[in-house]
Amino acid sequence: MKLSEIQELIKFVSRSGVSEVELELKDFKIVIKTPPRKKRGELIPQDSDNIVVHSTVPVVAAPTQVVVAPPVTTEEPTSAAEGQEASEEGKDSNLITIKAPMIGTFYRASAPDKPPFVSVGDEVVEGDVIFIIEAMKLFNEIESEVGGKIVKVLVDDASPVEYDQPIFLIEPH
Amino acid sequence: MIKLDAIDSTNDYARELLINSANIADGTVVLADFQAKGKGQRSKTWSSERGLNLTMSVILYPVNLKVEDQFLMTKVTSLGVMDYLKSIFDANLSDQLRIKWPNDIYVGDNKICGILIENNVRADKITSCIIGIGLNVNQEVFPDNIANPTSIKNELKRSFDLDKLRVDLCSCVESRYAQLHGISHKLLNQHYNESMYGLNQLKKYRIKDESIAAKLKGVSKFGELVLENVDGSSIICNHDELQYLS
User: Fold this and answer.
1) Class of domain B2-194
2) Which of A19, A28, A136, A169 shows its CA 20 to 30 Å from the CA of A7?
3) Which of A101, A105, A138 sits opposite B71 (nearest CB)?
4) Which chain B residues are Cβ-neighbours of A114 within 8 angstroms?
5) Domain B202-244's class?
6) Residue finishing a domain among A55, A80, A96
7) What is the per-residue pLDDT across A139-159, written as a single tens digit (0 to 9) for each?
């Protein structure tokens, strides 16, 4: 499901007066809740054959229920969607995704006042240091296993990264 | 061994060596009388008066060390420094030696040594490792901006020959390095944990934005700090999340 579709769905649910919509696809589930209202709204339309929408309309809204300002999604689609796009882009054009070999803090330069090891458009050869991951005060200079051109930087400097998190996209030679 | 009068940082020099020269031997030591830009963590600096202290970097090529096991290098180095200091301290002073997690060496509440380790990583293996050690030896007076420093001379009231000290310290680190390649890392793990500053004591820590009282229990396999809450539950944290308060 695309980000724009999710946004459309949220808008629609918000206007429709439905208090909660739960949508489950093959590997994707989204729950949209709106503040309780008195009137029942219509169910959202089935805009695709393979989309099943379960909507539950509470009989009585419990008074203690937390009222959330306009619709809130329980999933945070932005970062997941970006990651997905990145790897799809990788597949489509033979780009190689460079991933974090460990958990830690990602740094693009050897020190805060130094230029980054690599930037978009730079050519790297195998063995070049391309970024640092720091964990428990151990500084790890990560060497590239491929040669090619840096196409995209996917992580901000000085942010935490997980094991296997995509860091760069490289167009191999 | 490479001895220099004054350079920016022995770790930086060691890294330049690795980049620019093909065959740097395992155990190469880069030594400086004076470091203009001694490195601490990221932008923090390590200051040391000319000719009084030991500032050196050792280049090592650990065999088959996985990146997930990298904290073993911290254990090797800090225990090597501890072993050396125990060899010159009496029993009373030795009892006060502690490793303040992750890699500072303390005598009581005062810092005597800082360690900075930089690895090169290819795929999931550590291909080379630069161990930077800054040990306060003969310096007696420190700038005000250094919180709680001490030196060997401040503790023992006598000066040490830096060349002899370096040789003895390197052999202590080497013995611990040998344990890295042994069949078990049990001794490294056990000795590191039991040497920790604040072990089993109820102390105050700040984790992210929350202050808590907890007991330090040791480190995880990956080197994260393990604390025990007063209710008995465990907290595991990274160094950038944690601050010592007392």
Assistant:
1) alpha beta
2) A169
3) A138
4) none
5) mainly beta
6) A55
7) 999 999 999 999 999 999 999
Q: Name chain A contacts of B70, Cβ cutoff 8 Å.
A: 102, 135, 138, 140
User: What SS3 class is residue B125?
Assistant: strand
Q: d(Cα A30, Cα A25) in Å, to the nearest integer?
A: 9
Q: Which two tokens stand for residue A86?
A: 């990145």
pLDDT tens digits for A84-110? 444 444 455 689 999 999 999 999 998
**Among B14, B45, B48, B16, CA closest to B31:** B14
Same domain, residue pair A11 and A79: no
In angstroms, what separates the C-alpha of B222 from chain A's closest C-alpha? 9
Say if the ipTM goes beyond 0.90. no
User: What pTM, to 2 d.p., does this model score?
Assistant: 0.74
**In chain B, what are the domain boundaries?**
2-194, 202-244
**Residue A105 and residue A47 in one domain:** no
Note whether B71 contacts A137, CB cutoff 8 Å.
Answer: no
Find the domain containing A92 and state its range: 67-172
Structure tokens of B57?
A: 């970097």
In a domain, A62, yes or no: no
Same domain, yes or no: A83 and A134: yes
Q: Which helix (H) or strand (E) holds A129?
A: strand A129-135
